Amino acid sequence: MKFTAEQIASILEGEVVGNPNVEVFKLSKIEEGSEGSLTFLANPKYLNYIYSTKASITIVNKSFEAEQEIETTLIKVVDAYKSFSKLLEYYNQVKLMKSGIEQPSVVSEGVTYGEGLYLGSFCYIGKNVQIGTNVKIYPNSFIGDNVVIGDNCVFFAGVRIYSETVIGHNCTLHSGAIIGCDGFGFAPMADGSFDKIPQIGNVIIEDNVEIGSNSTIDRATLGSTIIRKGVKFDNQIHIAHNVEIGENTVIAAQTGIAGSTKIGKNCLIGGQVGIAGHLVIGDGVRIQAQSGVGKNLKDGEVVQGSPSFNYGDYSKSYVHFKNLPKIVNDLEVLKKNNE
């Protein structure tokens, strides 16, 4: 797919300086630019590269004035960084602009869907599924019975959605995500074995949620596991049964949250965090990477460590921990001197 400088300038409301008909078909860093590529200059540290880049088109701020001869065609905009981000979003939308049902695929009875559906090869759509408009479901995906999917959702290859799941508008699920599998519920028996507890609830994912690759969200034992609007998950995250994640909370990779814990809105949770079950985590909480949380946290707390405690206290304690061998040695010297 090719675009001219004039077409790009029209999208970005920018001004072309150079050849308006030059074409690009790929993106590049400014220092790695080549013929046919589009790049941008926003950071002054990379200024020298604009005089040597081989990129066909470079997006720059309106304030930029060349001090040497340049080969690349310029598109001058108010904010080069934001404009390049806008262009990436536009490019991604164009790239994902597929429609139609590829074969072989299975669409069961009672399924309804809106305009613009894309269903990739080897997909299975269960009975009575409701799919909104402009939904893209990539190959090898499974959608169970009675699932509801809102408008403008994208499910990449290999997504698995179990029955009864409800997904809102503008959600993105990356490859390998599994939504609605059984919660981890087993009752200990007298003979030492474990009896499985049926998990008959579901998962509700609200609008504007993004779920990273190979993440798993368990269905509730009763009721719903709920992911509120605007939540963003990194890859390889596990959410147990009956957990609730508040609005606009962001969780980094390899974090696990045990059953029935409630997490507030606008929280930031680092990678490899473990959160025990049946806890209440307040709004605006910050949990540093590799922390283990075993107690409730109030609004705005910042914690680190395993078990986690106040971030400031952790940082002070860590300084002493690093010096522990010297401290022990000093104590031994004091002890000998007092004998």
Automatic annotation (TrEMBL):
Its EC number is 2.3.1.191. InterPro entries: Hexapep, LpxD, Trimer_LpxA-like_sf, UDP_GlcNAc_AcTrfase_non-rep. One of its GO terms (cellular component) is membrane. Belongs to the transferase hexapeptide repeat family. LpxD subfamily. Catalyzes the N-acylation of UDP-3-O-acylglucosamine using 3-hydroxyacyl-ACP as the acyl donor. Is involved in the biosynthesis of lipid A, a phosphorylated glycolipid that anchors the lipopolysaccharide to the outer membrane of the cell. Homotrimer. This is UDP-3-O-acylglucosamine N-acyltransferase. The lineage of its organism: Bacteria, Pseudomonadati, Bacteroidota, Flavobacteriia, Flavobacteriales. The gene is lpxD.
